Amino acid sequence: QSHGTILIIYYNGDWYIQKEVERLIRASSGNHLEKKVVLDEKLIQQISSIDGAVLMDTDQNVYAYGVVLDGNAEIKGEPSRGARYNCSYKYIASLSSRKGVGCYYFGRWNG
């Protein structure tokens, strides 16, 4: 999409990713894929047109899309950066407090 897409890439294994996807969708919104699907160019064009994050693993398996990320409200954001940046930033910062949990973020920070 023209405003960028948030890709959250987990490197923690299938069990953790499934639980986190369920938690995020239960808490806010998003589309959970019943069966993980390998990302290709056609799929990324389709799902990135939907607002929200794409959650996947390092093997390019997509678990969910259109997901609203949550995070610790105590973490200070950047008011000038907007909701997409701040939600992503707070979500990733909140993951750093969980032992053995990690992800990568790919998005457009400037706009």
Class of secondary structure makeup:
alpha+beta
What pattern of helices and strands is seen along the backbone?
EHEHEEHE
Unreliable segments (pLDDT under 50, ≥5 consecutive)? none
Q: Name the beta content range.
A: 25-35%
Strand order of the biggest β-sheet: 2-4-3-1-5
Radius of gyration: 13 Å
What level of helicity do the residues show? Answer: 25-40%
Task: State the main characteristics.
alpha+beta; 3 helices; five-stranded mixed beta sheet; 111 residues
Structure description:
By secondary structure, the protein is α+β, with helices and mostly antiparallel strands. Helices cover 31% and strands 26% of the residues. The chain contains 3 helices and 5 strands; from the N terminus they run βαβαββαβ. The chain has a 5-stranded mixed beta sheet, with helices on one face. 23% of the residues are buried. The mean pLDDT is 78.
Write the SSE topology.
Elements: E1 6-10, H1 14-27, E2 31-38, H2 41-47, E3 53-57, E4 61-67, H3 83-95, E5 103-106
Parallel strand pairs: 1-3
Antiparallel strand pairs: 1-5, 2-4, 3-4
Short description:
With 111 residues, the protein is of the alpha+beta class. Helices cover 31% and strands 26% of the residues. The chain has a 5-stranded mixed beta sheet, with helices on one face.
